[in-house]
Amino acid sequence: MTFSNLLIQWYLRNKRDLPWRNTTNPYPIWLSEIMLQQTRVAQGMPYFLSFTAAFPTVFDLAKADEEQVLKLWQGLGYYSRARNLHKTAQYVADELSGVFPATYKELLQLKGVGEYTAAAIASFSYNEVVPVVDGNVFRVLSRYFDVETDIAAASAKKEFAALAFELMPKDNPAIFNQAIMEFGALQCVPKSPNCGICVFNESCAALQKNKVDQLPIKSKKLKVRNRFFNYLVVNDENENTIIQKRTDKGIWHNLYEFPLIETEKVEDFDCITERIQKEFFTNNGIVSIMECNEKSIIHKLSHQHLHIKFWKVNIKGTIENGVDAAALITFPFPIVIHNFIEKDL
After folding, report:
1. Alpha carbon of 214 to those of 7, 147, 257: distances in Å?
2. Is 33 an annotated catalytic residue?
3. Which of 33, 128, 182, 257 is catalytic?
4. What is the pLDDT of residue 1?
C-alpha cells in the first residue's frame, strides 16, 4: 500500500474533531492557521472559539478596535500575528468585499500569510493541489525517507514541498495535507515517538536505521538575547496607577505596560530606587518603594529572555490620567504583566 493511502487511512481513524476542519469557509480556516503558528492546538483552541464568538465573520473582525483584538489575543504570544490578522481582515472586508482570494498565489499577497498558511487555505478551502510544509511535515518526511537536509537551510522547504507534492493524491490534496500534519502532531512527535504502533514501522527508513531521534536535522538557533526589565507599579492617593503603550517596533508593539526601567543586568534595590527618585514622579514625591519579586521572573520569547521585576511605588497626590483597578484589566497587556495584575494587584 502506498505512503499516502496508509497515511490517509490512519488519519480517518485517528483525526481530532477540530472546528476548522468541519468547513471549507476560508475565514475560520485562515483564523485557525494564523493562531496555530508557533502554538499547540490545545493552547490555541480557546482563542479560536473566543475569536469566532466575538467576530463571526471577517466583517466583524475588520470593524473591531485593534485593542479589542489584542486583548482577546492576550497570552497567545507573537502579537504581530494579531495585528496582521486585523489588517488582513480589513483588507478582505473593504477591498475584496469579504471574499478571500481563491488561489495560493493570491493568498500569498495577504499580510501575515506566508507559504505554509497560503497552502493550507488554498488546499482546505479550494482543494488546490499545493502541499503544506510545516514542522510536522519536515519531521514525517525526513524520518520516513531518511532525508538529511538541514531544515533550517533556505533550500529545505522547496525540497520537502516537491517530495510532498509527488506523494499527494492530486484528486484530494486537502485530506493528504491534513493527514500528514496530524500524523506529525499525534504520532510522529519530536521526542520519543511510539514507533511500535506506527503504521509505517515496517517501511520507515529512520526506524530501520535507528535514526528516529536524529531526524530532522536542524542547525542551532540564533543566540538568545537577555534583557532586564524593571516595571514601576505606581499607586497614588486615589489608588490609581500609570500605564503606557509600547509604540516602538519590536516585542509587544501596541500592548500596554507599566513605566519601565530597562537595565544591562539585574540591579539591586539601591540602584533602582536611585533611578526612580531621579527620573520619575518628581512632581509628586515618593512615599515608599517596595520590590515585589526578589527573584526575576524569566519570560522566554523566541530570541529573547526577559528578566522581569516589579516595583511598587507609592506616591503623594494624584496622577494625571491615572487608571483605576477596574479600567486596568480592560487593556491588552503582555501575559507576564497580565498575570502580575491578576495575582498581585
Report:
1. 22, 11, 42
2. yes
3. 33
4. 59
